[in-house]
Design goal:
Layout lengths: L2 E6 L5 H16 L3 E6 L1 H10 L7 E5 L17 H26 L4 E7 L2 H10 L3 E5 L3 H8 L3 H11 L4 E4 L13 E3 L9 H11 L2 E5 L10 E13 L4 E10 L6 H6 L3 E4 L3 H9 L4 E4 L7 H9 L4 E3 L1 H5 E3 H9 L7
Parallel strand pairs: 1-2, 1-4, 2-3, 4-5, 5-6, 6-7, 8-9, 8-11, 9-10, 9-14, 11-12, 12-13
Helix pairs in contact: 3-4, 5-6
């Protein structure tokens, strides 16, 4: 049976959500079987989103990337701790690649796709099969921008340049020194369940979707003034004020339905959340923070007025009228 092996970086769930959209499309429009390679937490999440396709899916649990380490209560990268993670990952990479090769060599692997783990590229090279990358950035360029030593990250550049093709999603970061064949494509997100979204609107409208990442770890309460309104919120936050709060599971598998049912969204600026908002034509604000991994993406969104800025003070003293005015000023491109 013809099979595609799909490697997904375990650095954040945004890569998984966009990849599950692509995987579902492949399953619906071909007879390929899929092997999904990621860490256990992400694979468990993917099993929920891809239920119904179990007979054509195999899941392999492995750490697929060196995760960045952030300062406490911040999206600012701890460079020293991140360098340590990269060194540990690269030390174990040959072992993981050999193990993956031994698992896959007896299978009829037609193609390997990676978003954007170099482990997938290394395995494809050993198997002698084509490898396609999909991403809005490369770890080489991200690490370089963080100030990670070139001696450490050179290997990432070498492996990315072995890709047969790299699909670059719209709003991609600078990819200096990446010389493999590239093709620019648009945006991707999971399909909305129109019935579920419609039911959410009927039950909770007006509503705002809020998923702002690291700020949630702080202990202060959010004072939200949203009379007769609803906040769809991820994570554990303490809310005071005039609002109805619907707390979503930490790894909710269908955020797109909640975003679609909202008048606007407040997010931390990861590519997958941005893509969902743009595709669904929902205005969105991004929490302004000091240097983050996604700062190049966020800068483009603000420059094009695709998103409005929201400060932590504005978030904690949430005034719906003020934020509504901001949201209406957003440019809403058609996707």
């Amino acid at each position: 049976m013809k099979t595609i092996a799909y490697y997904i970086t375990d650095s954040g769930f945004g890569h998984l959500t966009r990849s599950t959209a692509i995987i579902e499309h492949i399953l619906e429009n071909s007879e390929y079987y899929l092997i999904i390679v990621c860490n256990k937490a992400q694979n468990d999440h993917a099993k929920v989103g891809l239920r119904g396709y179990e007979e054509r899916l195999i899941f392999i649990d492995v750490d697929t990337d060196a995760n960045s380490v952030f300062m406490e209560n911040s999206l600012k990268v701890d460079v020293e701790a991140t360098e340590h993670n990269i060194n540990e990952y690269l030390r174990e990479l040959p072992m993981h690649a050999k193990y993956q090769y031994n698992l896959l060599k007896a299978m009829d692997i037609a193609l390997i796709i990676t978003d954007i783990s170099i482990l997938g590229i290394k395995v494809a090279t050993r198997l002698g099969v084509p490898c396609i990358g999909i991403s809005n950035y490369t770890w080489y360029n991200r690490y370089k921008a963080m100030g990670i030593s070139e001696d450490i990250i050179e290997i990432f550049k070498e492996w990315y340049n072995k890709l047969d093709l790299l699909y670059r999603f719209e709003l991609y970061d600078e990819m200096e020194d990446i010389t493999c064949p590239m093709e620019d494509v648009g945006l991707v997100c999971r399909e909305v369940n129109e019935m579920a979204s419609s039911d959410l609107k009927k039950t909770y409208w007006p509503a705002v979707y809020m998923s702002v990442g690291q700020v949630e770890k702080k202990q202060e309460s959010f004072n939200i003034n949203f009379p007769s309104g609803t906040i769809f919120a991820t994570g554990n936050i303490n809310v005071e004020g005039n609002v109805h709060l619907v707390k979503l599971p930490a790894r909710v598998s269908h955020t797109q339905d909640y975003i679609s049912a909202s008048s606007f969204a407040l997010i931390k600026g990861g590519w997958s959340s941005v893509a969902e908002c743009l595709i669904l034509n929902i205005p969105f604000g991004i929490l302004v923070q000091d240097a983050t991994e996604d700062e190049e993406l966020v800068a483009k969104l603000f420059e094009r007025k695709y998103a409005f800025q929201i400060t932590e003070d504005e978030l904690r003293e949430f005034q719906i009228t003020h934020l509504n005015i901001k949201s209406q000023a957003c440019v809403r491109p058609k996707y």
